[in-house]
Amino acid sequence: MDGAYRKLPESHPAEPLYYGCKARVHSHRMLFTRKARSLRHKTARRMPSPSLAATALAALAISLGLAACENVASYTQPSLVRFIDASYIAPAVSVQVEGILIAGNIGQGTITPYGTVPASAAAPIDITAATGGKSLVNTSGTLLAGHQHSVFLTDNGAAPASYEVTVLEDQQVPAASGHSAFRFLNQAPKTGAVDVYMVPSGSTLADSVPLVTALPVGATAGYVSFTSQTVTMVITPTGVLPPRYSSTALNLTGGEVRTVLIVDTQLTSNPPVEVFVANDVN
């Protein structure tokens, strides 16, 4: 101390001082670079390999496919059902099949459109007067999955005010190419057995042969196929040409399937019958 020179301890050179934001900008750049690299490393570690992703997608597809197959396997097609009223003594009726109303307030000569009901080996069929009250007929019938059926109401001639119900299986595929198929239901007790002609355009009844001969009352002529063309349907009592029923011209082009209900006329004797035609297919 006594005026002597005292040497200060050596120190490291001081770092340069920067004013403003230069040093901070440099520091932030370094930090950002490190963070970006760190994120890239993390992202790379988290990305699944292509083979793992493909395996997961394949497993998902198989799972969905199996579920779809199970759903298809458990599906049962419904039945298509309609109602044909050929009763002379029944009042206007309503019809339920398996609790589903398929016809309401209809009378003789009505053929309803098809309705959809579940298939069943013993489908309950309930026919009541349209005005209500107890059942006129309560029965059951077989309705096949994916098939077409007609619930057919007729009178039981053996007992007054008694009815019969028949479940008919209808054709559900078109007739062969260039052909038409007709089915005939004879419910004309006064007229009796009938002959059915399909008279081609330009021909006469005298030149034609019956398509169906001597169809008895209560009988059904199954689907009869013939070459499609323009025809007139003529129905006569068996073996007798007049009186007769004649339809308007039917322009048949192929594939048609029809059901023809034949009943007695109630107000005339000529023609002796009237006819109701329903489209089964096409």
Describe the structure.
- The protein has helices at about 20-45, 50-75; strands spanning about 80-85, 95, 100-105, 115, 120-130, 135-145, 150-155, 165-170, 180-185, 195-200, 210-215, 220-225, 230-235, 245-250, 255-265, 275-280.
- The chain folds into two domains: about 65-170, Immunoglobulin-like (Sandwich); about 170-280, Sandwich (Immunoglobulin-like).
- Helices cover about 20% and strands about 40% of the residues.
- The protein has a four-stranded mixed sheet with strand order 4-1-7-8, with no helix packed on it. A four-stranded antiparallel sheet has the order 3-2-5-6, with no helix packed on it.
- β13 and β14 (about 245-250) form a beta hairpin.
- Residues about 1-45 have low confidence and may be disordered.
- It is of the alpha+beta class and about 280 residues long.
Task: Explain briefly what this protein structure is.
The protein contains two helices and 16 strands.
